[in-house]
Design a protein that fits this description.
The chain is mainly α. The chain has 4 domains: about 130 residues; about 140 residues; about 270 residues, no CATH class; about 55 residues. It is built from 26 helices and 3 strands. A 3-stranded mixed beta sheet has the order 1-3-2.
Length: about 600
């Protein structure tokens, strides 16, 4: 009850207006930095999950470490209304500052925050198309990952907070069920195949003995490493986690399963957002939000078709050099994949696969040193997803700067072929020099404002995923695949895969493609399953377009800098400027690179 009351108090505080700015303060900008810090703090008090995951208040207010408020799309209507009010408040307060009185860094900060808050306000119209239960970001999996991946476990207090947060999972799941019922009453349901996939995930989750549940095994593994947490106390806490899982978590997940099974007969197989009354506008908004551009769906679709043709031409050359000369590029790629040796589909084989990923990361760390002015202090580890989640796309979760949790690169080991093909490219994208370098350096950069370091405002997948895809290409350009034609083919395979995503995502949501059309076009891919990938795009419209759009912008800026600076161009310095900008919209990145070019010219 204490935590619930505290949560209500901080939510209310987040909506209170700040002291009104005096005319002198607003004109001079002398209070802008203080306003940014206070508004960021208010936002993090409202988003307690983010505050806990990033240990934002760990020193000043540790109470945030034992709460769970649920993902934004899983909140109830009242909670979302509070979030919208907080965003509108920020926009109103931001208008009080005269941009001409701010310095350059303050103007950049203001533009980033404004972009983010305006998107939040505009996006409020389309929140009903985001269902609480999907196979990629549903409450049934994100609530688990919140603890098994994101919760720091470094001290006895962290272990106590873990137990407390497990105790809140059932309530958060029930809130998601209530929200799903509200949407179902409005006939706003995911496609039938999405609901069926979610149902299977939940059945697998509740079907395992509580003692083997990842919530319990994660606690056991991590708590055993905590100094000062004695055996009897640790065992007692582990037993408590197991009791909560069997007595509260499993019943809540079972209630969610019952709802999903009720809704499956009422669902359809229509896949795109166009199926909703405001679906066309919702998709246009999501494209704008994810790509941070004004590109229309038809422009992105046509761009994807062109890129696919160009990349397949390069793949054809390599395939012929390897002796694969008959048939289409796709047919030859399927044959080449089938010819690759596999790790055994056993516990030992999965351990070998994990060791192979670790070797790639260690080698990439050595190679990347010459390409970057700074490298992260934060460690990165590779680990498989819990097996109950089945096949899913790989991911990266940034660690904490206090060393309590390393950066984590996760990948599937169930339902996917465990071969060496393409593994290097995935590791380069997710870990080094991709997302780990990007997000860890942001977290460790003392020059970045706190709201960027903690990804409170401005974060977007165009620059984040664009950098990951750019990292794949840099590795190829720098000869990391030298003597490994199959490995280089894996990089191009990943590249054409992202180009096909542009075609498939826009095809599904703007051109009324069916799920089957999309699966046929996408075909075999680095993620392993065309079905799982297409269903991911259906569940998260627009996001898949951000990768290639972001990468192309970074390459465009690099080419611009190379031409204008000539011999004064430094690749490591360019990388420092891109990563040093933080997780910003692409137009803000472009302005930062243009300022760097101008400064280099002047010098």
């Amino acid at each position: 009850m204490k935590r619930i009351v505290y949560g209500l108090v901080i939510a209310a505080l987040a909506l209170l207006p700040l002291r009104a700015l005096t005319a002198q303060e607003a004109a001079s900008g002398s209070r802008f930095d203080q306003w940014v810090q206070r508004y960021t703090d208010d936002t993090m008090r409202f988003n307690t999950d983010a505050a806990a995951n990033r240990r934002y208040f760990v020193a000043s207010d540790p109470r945030f470490q034992d709460s769970i408020e649920g993902q934004i799309q899983h909140r109830d209507v009242a909670r979302r209304a509070q979030a919208h009010a907080l965003a509108r408040r920020g926009l109103a307060e931001l208008k009080a500052f005269d941009p001409s009185k701010l310095n350059e860094s303050q103007r950049v900060a203001a533009s980033i925050i404004r972009w983010d808050l305006e998107n939040q306000v505009e996006g409020a119209r389309f929140e009903d198309v985001d269902y609480p239960f999907t196979q990629t970001e549903g409450a049934q999996s994100t609530l688990v990952s919140l603890l098994t991946v994101n919760h720091p476990m470094n001290t006895p207090r962290d272990a106590q907070n873990y137990v407390a947060r497990v105790g809140l999972l059932a309530s958060r799941m029930d809130e998601s069920v209530t929200e799903a019922r509200r949407l179902a009453a409005k006939q706003l349901l995911p496609p039938r195949f999405i609901l069926q996939a979610v149902a299977q995930q939940i059945r697998t989750f509740v079907g395992m003995p509580a003692g083997k549940n990842p919530l319990v095994t994660t606690f056991a593994d991590k708590a055993a490493q905590i100094k000062g947490l004695e055996g009897p106390q640790r065992e007692q806490m582990q037993q408590r986690v197991e009791q909560i899982v069997s007595g509260a978590v499993y019943p809540a997940w079972t209630r969610a399963l019952a709802l999903i099974e009720e809704e499956i007969p009422a669902s359809t197989t229509d896949a795109g957002l166009w199926r909703f009354p405001n679906g066309v506008d919702a998709y246009n908004f999501k494209l704008k939000r994810f790509t941070t551009t004004s590109l229309a769906a038809h422009q992105i679709h046509d761009l994807g078709l062109k890129l696919v043709a160009d990349i397949e031409g390069r793949m054809d050359t390599i395939l012929r050099s390897l002796g694969y000369t008959e048939g289409t590029v796709r047919a030859r790629m399927e044959k080449m994949r089938a010819d690759q040796p596999r790790f055994p589909d056993t516990a030992e084989g999965r351990a070998q696969y994990q060791a192979f990923n670790a070797e790639i990361i260690a080698d990439a760390e050595r190679r990347a040193a010459v390409l970057f002015e700074r490298v992260p202090k934060m460690r990165v580890v590779a680990q498989p997803y819990p097996e109950f989640l089945g096949p899913r796309a790989q991911s990266y979760t940034v660690g904490t700067t206090d060393g309590s949790r390393p950066g984590t690169f996760q990948y599937a080991v169930v339902g996917v072929p465990l071969t060496r093909f393409g593994v290097r490219t995935i590791a380069y994208h997710e870990a080094i020099p991709g997302h780990h370098f990007q997000l860890a350096l942001i977290a460790e950069d003392p020059s970045l404002p706190g709201f960027l370091k903690n990804r409170v405002f401005g974060g977007n997948s165009a620059i984040t995923e664009g950098w990951g895809l750019y990292a794949e290409q840099v590795a190829a350009e720098q000869g990391w695949y030298e003597g490994d034609a199959v490995g280089l083919l894996g990089q191009l395979d990943a590249d054409v895969f992202r180009a096909r995503r542009l075609v498939v995502d826009t095809g599904l949501h703007a051109k009324r493609w069916t799920r089957e059309q999309a699966i046929e076009y996408l075909g075999p891919n680095p993620a392993g399953s065309a079905v799982a990938e297409v269903e991911r795009y259906i569940a998260r419209p627009g996001q898949a377009c951000s990768y290639m759009i972001g990468k192309l912008k970074i390459l465009e800026l690099r080419e611009r800098a190379t031409k204008q600076l000539g011999s004064r161009f430094s690749l490591s310095e360019f990388h420092a400027r891109v990563l040093g900008a933080g997780p910003v919209p692409l137009d803000v990145l472009e302005a930062a690179i243009d300022r760097w070019i101008a400064a280099k010219k002047a010098a």
